[in-house]
Amino acid sequence: MSDYEVIKEGYWNCPNCQTRNQGSAMACHACGATRGEVEFFYDEQAPAITNAAEIAKAELGPDWLCAYCGTSNEAGKTVCKQCAGGNDQGRKRAQEDLPPDGKRPTPKSQPGKRSVDSAAPSPAQGIPPMAKYGCAGILIFLAILCVLALWEKSYQAEIVATKWERTVGIEQYMPVRHQGWKSQVPIGARTLKEETKIRTYRDVLIGHKDVTESYSERVRVGSRRVKKGVKSLGNGRFKESYGDEPIYQTRQKTRRVSKPVYRKDPVYDTEVTYEINEWKEVETRRSAGTKELPSWPTTGLSGAVSPAPPIGTRREGKRTEKYTVSFKLEKDPKSYEVFEIHKKPIDSAFFLKLRTGTRWAAIYDGLGNLLELRSPEGGSPSSGPTKSAP
């Protein structure tokens, strides 16, 4: 099917009485008003013009508007039918290329006129309402979160309880048993056992074989007529352009192909069981309290020893500490327990200030996160999120 064109008659709306008129009409059939500078609209449902004389009129070109009285005149006329003004002073209507649906992206507005197309939604109005509301809702939600995160409110807080815990790991220098591949055994280790084991596999090409495999292929199975565009001829008629568009289908096919064949061959290595002298945590000492001042558990050991101590030598290892305080807010019977501020653990220096019975300004943001415990006397503040406020 080859490309071809069809001419159809459009319509215009009378600016005087809003009556819809055929595109070729030179005056309103309802009130008799002469067709002046009106907007032509495309009618997709209109039948194709087949009369040779009408086709010739349509292809004659756009009509022109008289410079003296504004009357619309056909392209072939040299003088205005209303006032006899010459066409040399007149203004030709513009021809316009439109999308296949014939709708203008931004409809022209004319005073006193409301056309059928003017009620059509703009691209922005074409967004589904739920999508528009959804996007707006997300933006509003994010804005609220930002406002709440920046908003601050102070509550009076009283420390009602404190507790602390400190631990010290006890390490002993001793033989420790490990397993590993021979190439990974550290220097100074004592080998206890060696065993040959499969460490991995490798692919070995042993030949090829012909196999049948399936594959998909897009095949053209025909064509269909599609509208490529619409052109306003500037005289109340519109030209539709059609062309061929191929139609494809995805079909499954088979073919014979040669594929490589591999064998999985094991790769052997030596696994070693060995011992090496190293420090290993064997015990943990703990101390805890509530009203007492924090102290480290006694170990009777030192953290520093010689580089190669005798087997069985002990030393202090890793130390940990955790400080927790509970407080009540004004007019709130609940108590809130915190052990970190601003995602950082409470340190010992600040913990010593948070004694039972002392009062602090608890600063919260709008999301209920504790930002600071600030001394009413202007002491060192502490900031960071912990537990939500009521």
Give an overview of the whole structure.
The chain is mainly beta. It has a domain at 158-170 and 286-383. The chain has three helices and 18 strands. The protein has helices at 52-59, 129-150, 348-351, and strands at residues 4-9, 11-13, 20-22, 40-41, 64-65, 72-73, 91-92, 96-98, 152-181, 190-232, 237-289, 314-329, 335-338, 340-341, 344-345, 359-365, 370-374, 382-383. The strands form four sheets. Strands 1, 8, 9, 10, 11, 12, 13, 16, 17 and 18 form a ten-stranded antiparallel beta sheet that branches. A three-stranded antiparallel beta sheet has the order 3-2-4, with no helix packed on it. A three-stranded antiparallel beta sheet has the order 6-5-7, with no helix packed on it. The protein is elongated. It starts with a strand and ends in a 7-residue tail after the last strand.
